[in-house]
Fold this protein.
Amino acid sequence: MTRPRAASLPSAPPPFSLRRYQSDISSHRHDFAQLVIPLDGPIEIEVQGKGQRLLPGFACVIAPGERHDFAADPALSFLVQESSWLPEALAGHPFIELDEPQRHYLAFLHRMVAEGRQVAGMEQVWLGLLAESQGVGPAMAPPIAPRIARVQRHIEAHLAEPLGNARLAGVACLGQSQFKHAFRQQLGMSVSHYIRGRRMALARTLLSQSALPIGDVACRVGYQNQGAFAERFLAETGLTPSAWRQQNGRLP
């Protein structure tokens, strides 16, 4: 069987999405930062050992690797942001009350995401606004060294393939030890955690925006074994791939 051309794969998934959750309590953690923002009703959520009934007008900040428990009325919608970078000022503040400028920008984000339009850079503006409210100046993502940015582009283009440290260190023109140290220093996580996060992000996009069989989705994100893919996806999202598609699918 001929594998679809790589050009047919979506590029990096957009940072914002609209989601609904289950009324039963779910619990998981993931290798990227996540912000959960209620739009029309509350969510029960616990993170960093702190539980709250999060209402519209507030945001929950979940740092990479942080376990969180959550449940909400399935009829309610939430704006969710996923990011490989989180301003330091936000790391210790899981719950943030939005001020007036933030609420105005949130309304803009909601409209853009609902219309399927996401402009490059608007996620940095949003994180910067949130960081400013914690008493620091405007937050900008630290610059990524060209060789690490080259590795990021290579990873995005080859998520279906094996991506070992030796291969990626070659892309960066560094020794393996130097490469692993530079990658963690730049992105705040290990190479394997970053790759897994990108694969799961692409899997969520394919499940929600395409009718590909789950086995094909698994292959496109680097898993030859559908069972291993389903197990990892459940650990990352709290849902099986089929349940995720049912809740988040955009196809008629």
About this structure: The chain is about 45% helix and 15% strand. The longest strand covers residues 33-38.
